[in-house]
Amino acid sequence: MTEKDYYAKFEVLQQLSQDLTRELALMKESISQVxxxxxxxxxxxxxxxxxxxxxxxxKEDELSxxxxxxEKLYDQGFHVCTVMYGAHREQQEECAFCLDVIxxxxxxx
Length: 109
What we know:
2 domains; 3 helices; 0% strand; cytoplasm; metal ion binding; DNA replication initiation control protein YabA
């Protein structure tokens, strides 16, 4: 190989090295952004879980005894609405009328 060939090859390798360095820097930045977003989502998820458990506990506390009984029947697979009271719910499908009877129109004490 001549000196020019070595120099040309060196320049090509140097350019490839610089391109790879730039690509690695961009990848590092992307990974940092993803990790930061992941951490934020974990915190938000934990806050939402806490809030959800608080809401669930409140829901149980706010229901009167009769509504809790209706809720148990509904959870066992029976309609509690006036439209289909006592009928079996097919494949545990949701019924808006039943849910309204159980959770709708809550009266504050």
